[in-house]
Amino acid sequence: MSASGNGDKAPDTAREYVRRGWHVIPIPPKAKTPKIDAWEQLRIGEAELTKHFRTGSNIGVLNGEPSGWLVDIDLDHALARELADEFLPPTGAEFGRASSPRSHRLYVVTGPVETRQRRLPKQNGKAPMIVELRSTGSQTVFPGSVHPSGEPIEWNSDGEPASVAPGLLVAAQNALADAVEARLGIVRTMPSQNGHTSGLRTDTADRARKYLAKLPPAISGQGGHDQTFRAACVLVLGFELQRGPALELLREWNQSCEPPWSERELQHKIDDALEQPGERGYLLYRPKTATPLPAQSKQIHRPVEIVPYQIFPVEVLPGIVGTFVAEAAAAIGCDASFVALPTLACLARAIGNKRVIRLKRTWQEPAIVWAAIVGKSGTHKSPSIAEATKCLQAKQAEAMVQYQEAQRHHEQERALYERDYAAWKRNKTTEPPPWEPQEPALARYIVSDITIEALADRLHRQFDGVLVVRDELAGWLGGIAEYKGGQGSDLGHWLASWSAAPLTVDRKTGAIKTVHIPRAAVNIVGGIQPGVLRSAIGREHLQDGLCARLLLAMPQAKPVRWTEATVSPATEATIGKVYERLLALEPAADEEGNAAPFAMPLTPEAKAVWVSYYNRHRAELAELDDDLAAAWSKLEAYAARFALIFQLVAWAQGEAGGDAVDESSMAAAIKLADWFGGEARRMYGVLRETEQDREHRELIELIRRKRGRITARKLAHASSGYRGAGEAEASLERLVKAGLGCWETSATGGRPAQEFVLSEASNSNGSPETVD
Q1: 683 — phi, psi (to 5°)?
Q2: What are the two backbone dihedrals, phi and then psi, of residue 299, each rounded to the nearest 5 degrees?
Q3: I need a surface site. Which of 101, 228, 705, 738 has the fewest CB within 10 A?
Q4: d(C-alpha 35, C-alpha 737), whole Å
């Protein structure tokens, strides 16, 4: 099916849907809601399509009975999309958009079914949707349309919708929603007989039993019994019951089948289901594979694979910036990324709104960087940020002195004005009143704890934006999502400032009640501990785009030893001059004479490098899950932003032109964006870890630092998490059973000792420390 994503062929695309027996309705461009009264009853014939559908129209398809019981499973929650393949029947018709692929799955039900929604519990007055089964009385915007975000809605697979029994689809929908809630740690309470909640946790087995009861009757013959049994296994195992309780539930359900299987047949079928490969040990509705899992793998927890940390590529940073980062990291004793990320944010602030990179006529990117350095307490996050922001802090101190002097001068001028104004009023002259002196403005390069109202006031006073520096980002992350007196959160305002988008803030106090900033440019940098980041980000900020905007770096901790190293005076002086030149840049002007960014185009060579990167990057994005896809789309913008920063740094050093972005800057920027892509993969894995996964990863990282081998006694000594060598040995043995290492006997003098050795794959990276 050739559904265009831009709405230009809306009548033709709508005609294809009508010929498939689906009733269509017109939707306004970039909208999801019909504007026609009684649209539920609208039945447009093929001959009338051009009358209703014009260029740019979106196309809605009526679900349920009007379209032959075509129903849409709408996967709203990111986790629902992630887990859908485990719980929903496969179908040949799936669609979505670039940032949310395969979010709509189409089925034809074999009997009537009502529209059903599953939502998360209410929080701040809202109950976010998990998954919706859309049937009669609803409509879905189909491919050939454009989402309100501007993304085309496109087919991921445009075959035939699968035919499914309604009870089976409802049961799968509920099981999927329960799995999402389980991942989020949500515990439902059990209703009592009077309809009020008892406060008791719903028993997992009771929930599984409830959904088993919703399965269609299992009738022997034509494969119906076998298919329905596989659905029963999915529902039971989806609640992660142990084999004993699971078998008991399936025995109960088997008695309702006509005829039931014998005990021996039941055991055999369960064994078959358990041997299916997949995340939970089975694949829903799939034929049995001939390759069972190893017997022991059912009892062994294998940790989520976390890609090892890759050394930060200091060499791609331009000239003096790379030198400064390397010297500062050596002096502090931290990873280079801890200095590089805040330095990039500082350079972006120095450029501010005065320059943008123009990728094409309708696509420009500003010099804005949001960065978070992630590390446990004592990993030198604060000293790294302090060193990176030193130049801007010095400039801020200088501006403060100038402001205080200007304030004293203003007070003198104000006194003279008030005297002259009083005289003017007394004399009742026809002369104009005396000139009123304006309040001096304090240039702000860096701010810390600031509300959105104060931020709007600051941006209203200065065109070139600000840098928000927070030693601990947790406070900022927690504050921006809080609801202010029922008026909503500040999150949307902050997200807009990442793109230098317009910002309008209504205030209750002050002379100006509504503050409008045409280009709200805000850079952000701070430090945060891994556990705090996991709690602060949660699933919410993985979905709303906040996490995708943050450049993250979490290097492995390394031992710090005394060093006499410092940042050399020559390096400090040279990078100081770079900041001076960047801060002295002048903006362009728009047609009305207002300050506007000067757009720097790409040289032809840089454009060729960019196009090659863009095509490769987009191909990678199509293969990612929703969370990583969101981060990938922002990294595309960051590649362009890095190129802008690198070009202007080279210009400030007198090594390149300042009118266009060249090939060298673009190539280096792409290498840096690729590094952040690898770190995003690793960090998103960390954010999804279970507690057991985290223990495995931290243990493996500790062993890597010990050159990939350690004894139980040394592990107990190195980590406070073990009460003795016995507990440490048990943890190491779990790694052995998971295939992540083996035991070797070491005899380096004295009594031989058992030493755990990481496998080559597990020990592929890390900064080893000397073992005594």
Answers
A1: -70, -40
A2: -100, -10
A3: 738
A4: 61
